[in-house]
Structures are given as structure tokens and as C-alpha cells.
Amino acid sequence: MIHRKSNGVFIIAATPFTDSGALDLDSADRMVDFYLEMGVSGMTILGIMGEAPKLTSDESLTFARHILQRVAGRVPVVVGVSGPGLDNMVRLTGEVMGAGASGVMVAPMPSLNTDMKQKGYFAQVCNALGPDVPICLQDYPQTTGVNFSVETLLDIFAAHAQIVMLKHEDWPGLTKLSRIREATGQRAGRLSILTGNSALFLPQEMQRGADGAMTGFAYPEMMVQVVARHLAGDVDGAEDLFDAYLPMVRYEQQLGLGLAIRKEVLHRRGVLSSPKVRAPGPALSDLDKAELTRLTTRLEAKLAAFS
């Protein structure tokens, strides 16, 4: 199970589709094997970048079960269960936990525009899922439109012991991260903090007390090495390696287009049979693909020199 000291890189997994838009479970198998080979500490599926809202309930369950079976307990798997209805959330949680998930991730509903609503919602979620299900709370206001204050998050953490992990991706959010880390263990119990935003601020986040990353950058080996070097005290080495990848990190971070870029890279790396993003979704132009080729070529040259 995920816990308050979980660390490392929990990769946000893509959901592979065929060119026609059907689930591609063969690519899913290659994807799991690829992520594990790259050294990830865990996986997160059915997140926002995993196109969860575009899947039917049956597809979500089929995909989750397939991934859990392929992983076979080698690393913890967190399953996104966010949705408008608690009944569906409870049903999906029960199914995936029974199939071997190590916890679930819950993002707030877009209508939670006051502190009281935010606290009330997570009280309902925790009560519905029960105390034995470890929860990762996702703080991603750029997508959800919900802005948590530090004080509200700390109150939620203190009130609900099963929330053991925060997926932090507020932006700008470095000061928020520092304040939460400073307060956890005092006002609220210590919890694992994993960061998102395509790893754009990963070195600084690690220096401010993050335990690792939970994002889907298409070069997971970079995140694994950066986190490991930070945890070993090699801050400069971590930043030097990160700097080599920074143009690619920045390019993939483009809002609206980033998922298509990520899937194209995974396709080029032989992981996905198709870079298909399920409709409605973006597609890369020929110019986009040419830019990506140039960035990839330059990255490979930098890594050769870095070695």
C-alpha cells in the first residue's frame, strides 16, 4: 500500500489506444514493462493525463485490471477514481483495490469554491471509501479550477488519516510546497508529497522537501535519476542531468498539446503502437513533429556528451 513515506517516481501512465481509438492492451503490456525497466517506484493509472474521463466505466475497469495483472505487485499502483458521483467512485475503488491496487487518487470536484465545500467533500469521500483505502489527494487547480489554501489542506490531512499522499501540482507552487512540508509532522501528520507538472520544477521541488515525482514525462529514466541523486545528496549532479532534458520537459509541458507530444515520444520509443489521443483531443502537425525530432536529436547529443 502507499503510505506516508512513499517516495521515488510514480509514473503517470498513458492509456494506449489503437489508431481507431480502441483500448490497446498489447501496448499497455509494453508500457508497463518499459516503465519498470526504467526504474519507476510506482505507477498511477486513470489520471487526468491518462484520459480517464474519455473511458467508459467498463473500459476503466478493464484497463485497471489489466495493468494490475501485468505489474503483478512489483511496484505499487495508484488508480485515479475521481468522478462526479460517489457511488461510482466507491464501486471502482472496491474493484481496483480487490484487484491489487495500492491506493486511489482523488481530485476535487470543480464546484468546490470555498474552504467549507472542500473540507466537506473530502469528508464525504473518506467516509464513503472507508478508512482502509489509502488516498492520494490531487491538487491541480490548472485543470480542476479548485484552489486549496495551505490551511485547508492541512485541516483535511489532519482530519482524515487515510489521506497519506499529496500530488502537488499547483503553479506557482514552490512556496506552497515548502509550507506544507514544514507543517506536516506538526499540525498534521507527515505525508508523502509527489509532484507533477511534467517535472518542470522537479529539482527545486526536491530541494523543498518533496519525496519524488508523480507525472508522466516520456523519459521516466530522467526523473528516476534526478530523484535518486537528490535523495543521495548529489544536488548538483541531479540538476546537471535535469538541465540536459529541460528543453524536452518544457516542450511536453504545453497545455492542451502536451499529451499528444508525450504519446508521440512513447510511440517513437517503441512503447505505444499508436500515438492516438482519443477524441476530442489534439494531434501534432507536421511542423510539431519536425520540432520534436530536432529536440530529440539534440537531447541524444547532450546525453552522449554528459556521459
TrEMBL record:
Binding site for pyruvate: M214
Taxonomic superkingdom: Bacteria
A single Gene Ontology CC term: cytosol
Protein name per UniProt: L-2-keto-3-deoxyarabonate dehydratase
Keywords, in A-Z order: Lyase
Gene Ontology MF annotations: 2-dehydro-3-deoxy-L-arabinonate dehydratase activity; 4-hydroxy-tetrahydrodipicolinate synthase activity
This enzyme's EC code(s): 4.2.1.43
UniProt-listed InterPro entries: Aldolase_TIM, DapA-like
Gene3D superfamilies: Aldolase class I (3.20.20.70)
UniProt keyword annotation of Lyase present: yes
Keyword Lyase on entry: yes
Enzyme superclass (EC): lyase
Family as reported in the entry's similarity comment: Belongs to the DapA family.
